[in-house]
Amino acid sequence: MAGWSTLPEELLDEISEHIETRSDIIRFRSVCSSWRSAVPPLRRKLPPRFPILPNNGVSDFTRGFCLSKRTVYILSLPHYPRILTDPPQRGSSWLIKAKQDGSRGMSLLNPLSSDGLGPLPMGCPKTLDSSRFRVSELACEFVLRYVTCPPLVWEPIINALNVYMEKVAFMCLNSTDFALLTIHVSGKLAVYKYGDKMWSIISDMPYPYDDVIRFKNKFYAVDGHGRIVSVELDLNLIKIAEPIHGGDKKFLVESLGELLLADMYLSVYAYYEGPEDVEPDETNSIMMERTVKFKVYRLDSDKQEWAEVMDLGDRVLFLGEDCTFSASSSDLGICKGNCIFFTGDFYYSNGNQDDTFNGRDIGVFDMASGRIGSLDDYIGYSELFWPPPKWITTGSSEVEEKIESLVL
């Protein structure tokens, strides 16, 4: 049998076309010199600034948009998992989101939001030894932020205006060209293709859109009534399946090569902070939304319909503010899957007191029971998030691979 280094160049080219993550590129290029020459270390450089997205004068304060990439990693002990049938080892994995801040280096964020994390605990290494940790890329997100002029004067205003931007779907067209799909403040879809001088707003909008995604190298979007369309680069919309009615916010998630729709159900509650002897009412309370349940559907593209999913098996869905992704419970080192992690306001039952308000936090929806709980309600779930596990802080002096090298 021929060695790996003697594989035909055309086969290496074909394999390299299917490599998407920075970490996989590094591993591919590390095999041997012939593999290293088949794939460049950096495939493309994004332009520093994008045209202003029209939004009825809101962008008058800006010079354009800056596109930044953030990557979600899972760090785990190298010996785990040994065998898939072995019971999970609690605290064996850690989820982080890394954002490159240009010359300022890298910062860590909450994997499901844009919230920054606290300073690293004492003893936590700033570089990671790949002989001691397994580093795998779970997902990446692209975020458009306003470029201001002058930055110091308009910074507070522009930060407030960032709420108008939804998440961005990014698609490579070739080694240099790319396309972006996002949701305009009006609820319409907006498309930008490399080299365009302006964004293209698609006027077709029976209902405002909720989410966008790149799936199998195509753009998809879903509106608030569950109408899903494929978004062609010529700006045509093709209906993929009949709408799903019922929930209040739709999320598109890829899981094991299938496109899923997570339908979030919300209810309205009155948020009150005041004297206990005053009865809350609409005059002294703020009406807010809380998450009460989810339903999940799988896209059957042949039948052009959604099929409800009652059981996710060992899969876990993550519904973040700027990206969605999935993972197996074995990779995450948790006891069970079949659940959904999300951010938002929610109530939960802790066994002693029902309807306990948790405020805005990471919640867990159990598909089997239909129950929403906090991370602490499930063994091993809270250890996935901040702060880092103790085994991270027992650093090694020899560094094989820096996590910064995994961030574009």
TrEMBL record:
SMART domains: FBOX (SM00256). It holds the Pfam family F-box. It comes from the Eukaryota. Residues 7-46 form the F-box domain. Signal peptide: none annotated. Gene3D superfamilies: 1.20.1280.50. This is F-box domain-containing protein. It comes from Trapa incisa.
